Amino acid sequence: MTAFFALATSLLWGLADFGGGLLTRRTPALMVVVVSQGIAATVLGVIVLATGGFSEAGPRLWFAFAAGLVGPVALFSFYKALALGPMGVVSPLATLSVAVPVGVGLLLGERPGLMQVAGIAVAVTGVVLAGGPQLKGAPVQRQAILLTLVAALGFGTVFALITEASRTVTGLFLALFVQRLTNVGAGGIALFASVRRGGEALPAGGFPWTSLPALAFVGLADVAANGTYSVAAQHGPITVAAVLASLYPVVTALAARGFLRERLRGIQAAGAGLALVGTLLLATG
Q1: Hey, CA dihedral for 175, 179, 180, 182, is it positive or negative?
Q2: Torsion-angle region of residue 263: left (phi > 0), alpha (psi -120 to 50) or beta?
Q3: Are 83 and 29 in contact, with CB atoms under 8 Å apart?
Q4: Mean pLDDT over the full length of the chain
Q5: Per-residue pLDDT tens for 110-128?
Q6: Is the distance from CB of 251 to CB of 13 less than 8 angstroms?
Q7: How far is CA 24 from CA 63, 85, 178, in A?
Q8: 173 CB contacts (<8 Å, ≥6 apart)?
Q9: Within 10 A of 169 (CB to CB), how many other CB atoms are there?
Q10: Which pTM was predicted?
Q11: Which pLDDT score is estimated for 63?
């Protein structure tokens, strides 16, 4: 059961990443975040009402609120990176978010084992190689790499905060609902500020109503992935669940290759692969 739900998590996150990255290539990233998370918040609100999740309210929800503030920054950075760089490079680099729990452990007095030290070294090497250098041709934009690393830090922080926000399934629904509401509020404020500075809230042709199903899928797939990962971790070793769930970049890369005919240069593919290997070493260490 752990393997099934963890692999389902990889599939859902991978497809959500692909859909979000594709949407931001023709729609402002902030709008993608606000609309997709707004749809997710609406669905979660219905689920919380149906399951009586509001009875789980308590001080732990402050963790969910904090996750909601960090989440839009991570999503915006990630979607912008996907719009700027090859998905087959950006998505694997984002899995470096697993380094955040390792860092928290270090602050609490834990010491990494040999496997974790090796994972850090391999992952850093992957980050460097994923952006070049190349003897010819342009490397991946530095901005895309930087945005991806910001997103990875944000995703890792959100994961740690949501873990602390609940201890039960109904509590998890409520925590995710609070997180998504905060996502929408923070994203909406950022979108308003962007418009005041002359940015675009909508594409040139107006609101992309034809993209609404895709926006809904991105938001709901992200929420569903959180749910399936929680189930996987509750029914088996967290290490196994984390390793299998962290394979989602493979789904994104395969989708990009299949639908966009995306091709990676050798050194970029090697760097992305090393980042993924480093992530797996960190998770299993």
Answers
A1: positive
A2: beta
A3: yes
A4: 81
A5: 676 777 778 778 877 776 6
A6: yes
A7: 28, 12, 25
A8: 44, 47, 48, 51, 53
A9: 14
A10: 0.77
A11: 92
